[in-house]
Amino acid sequence: ATLTHRAALRLHRGAPTPSFAMRVLSMLASSPASPLPTTCQSWEASTLAGIRSLECRTTAVPPMSANDVMVSVKAVGLNFADIFCVLGVYEAANKMLSDGSPPNSGGTSQAAGSFCPGLEFAGEAVAVGAAVKDIRVGERVYGFTRFGAYRTVVVQEAVYLRPVPEGWSYAEAAALVAQGLTAWHGLVELGNIKRGARVLVHSAAGGVGCAAMQICTSLGCQSTGVVGSEGKAAWLQERFPQAEVLVRGPQRGYAEQLRALPGGGRFDCVLDSLGGKYFSAALDSLDPMGRIIHFGATYSYGGAKDGWCGLRKWLTFVPGYLSRPMVDPGQLTPTNRAVFGFNMIWLTDRVDLLTAELDAMLGKGGMTNRAPAVGATYPFEQLPEALEYLNSGASVGKVVVEVGEESKQD
């Protein structure tokens, strides 16, 4: 029950020991000022056939454990992984839809038969569990979740949350974790980049791309950012004036474009999110001991569309699938190159690694030195439209959905 200040004072006067009074005051500090929400608004899908499969529903707020924090969400960061989820091409999403949330999975509780996407959010802590020491009611926090962020209220373990940096908006805080961790894990943990390394970043004007460029800047690497239009090139060059920026052309001519870069277009590490022949050309651009890190295939699969009862998805998905690049392991050994693929969801099974990498990314990666670039914001009610804009390829920086008071339901 919530304690009033007067009740706390009466308990304090009758307390047998000072420690008892401190416990009471601690309870008061951690108690919510108003009744906690029992329901929230949630974008969910019962079938994963496309963006328009999402419906805004009223759903129950999951119960809290001693290690949890209840967050009144103010902003949600969108990712291409969300689009792959609702298209049904993301295996972890399909499994959650059929089986529900696995226990201790690092995500918001979800029942089988209904899937809520979303990996990152920011908001205000409205309740904290008894075992939570570092977060207080009323504190501004941001965090990561294994799906379930498309809600106006999220219940998540405190270990996955961090305080919003001073001066940052909720939208900026919601644009940090998923893209920052993806870039850090790819470049540092797998790519092993060091000061002076030559790094090629595909889709460099997007959320992960911008984070990768920032990490390269903080670590003293030589970065080349690849974008899809002159407008994006100008935007990226202004944000990272020391970087080389390349506007990619058609797939068949991409290898020549790389060779025309200063230094002959040779790299120590490539962060690839495109796939297709862009992947193949980037692999060939690696010097000995070079590594290509593949974490997405937006060019190959991002064009998949919803509609026509799911048929359109497969008609637009199959061509990219059939033309995906093949890697001959026998050619990696003599050229001393490595290919890595990774999925951020895997890290939720290793909370020790996830939290260690999160703190390293925030510190050594310099990700809190400069707020992430938020390129577009949409109201919560227009979340499907925000996803369609992200999927259009026209966005720069991060696309974020903001939650207003009218979006919430207690």
Count of DSSP strands: 15
The assigned structural class equals alpha/beta
Task: State the helicity in percent bands.
Answer: 25-40%
Overall 3D shape = globular
**SSE order, as H and E?**
HHEEEHHEEEEHHEHEHEHEHEHHHEHEHE
Rg over CA atoms, rounded to whole Å, is 23 Å
Straight-line distance between termini = 18 Å
Helix tally? 15
Query: What value does the average pLDDT take?
Result: 87
Could you name the ranges where pLDDT drops below 50 across 5 or more consecutive residues? 1-29
Major sheet characteristics: 7 strands, mixed
Content of β-strand: 15-25%
Overview of the structural elements:
The chain is of the alpha/beta class and 410 residues long. It contains 15 helices and 15 strands. Helices cover 34% and strands 21% of the residues. Strands 3, 4, 5, 6, 7, 14 and 15 form a 7-stranded mixed β-sheet that branches. A 6-stranded parallel β-sheet has the order 10-9-8-11-12-13, sandwiched between helices. Strands 1-2 form a two-stranded antiparallel sheet. Helix 1 (5-13) runs antiparallel to helix 2 (18-30) and helix 6 crosses helix 7 (207-219). The model is unreliable at 1-29 (pLDDT under 50).
